[in-house]
Design a protein that fits this description.
This protein is of the alpha+beta class. About 15% of the residues lie in helices and about 45% in strands. It folds into 2 domains: about 70 residues, 2,3-Dihydroxybiphenyl 1,2-Dioxygenase, domain 1, CATH 3.10.180.10; about 45 residues, 2,3-Dihydroxybiphenyl 1,2-Dioxygenase, domain 1 (Roll), CATH 3.10.180.
Length: about 130
């Protein structure tokens, strides 16, 4: 997403699914949902971008639980924009939640995955500090 179009804090801006073998689920989501799938090279394997039929802009990702994603749970993960991922991660722990992964760089953002006190998982993103 271009830096001039960064969503406001609180905006849901992405979702993806991280599983052990994303390539095995690709045909499932193509057939069940109708998403068009393109490969996103990750070195020795590819993750996938999922788009609505006939559209180029992806709406979600389908990722292998490898490399930087190996700590993420196998579930659909929604990413929410926050002002400062590091501060949000600290506050999460103070309020009885836990940080599952990160904070770490992800593209031009800082990312972390948190689990709330009742077990739900959420991804948080903010701009990298310069």
């Amino acid at each position: 997403m271009p830096s001039s179009q960064i969503p406001a804090p609180g905006a849901i801006e992405w979702c993806d699914l991280t599983v052990p073998e994303a390539s095995e689920l690709r045909p499932f989501y193509e057939a069940v949902v109708g998403w068009e799938v393109t490969e996103h090279p990750m070195g020795e394997y590819s993750d996938y971008c999922l788009a609505r039929p006939g559209e180029e802009n992806p709406v979600a990702g389908l990722c292998h639980a490898r490399g930087s994603n190996q700590k993420l749970p196998a579930q659909w993960l929604i990413y929410v924009r926050v002002t400062d991922v590091e501060s949000s991660a600290v506050r999460c722990c103070e309020l009885g939640g836990e940080v599952l992964d990160g904070p770490r760089p992800m593209g031009g953002d800082l990312f972390c995955a948190i689990r709330d006190p009742q077990g739900a998982v959420l991804g948080l993103v903010s701009r990298l500090k310069k």
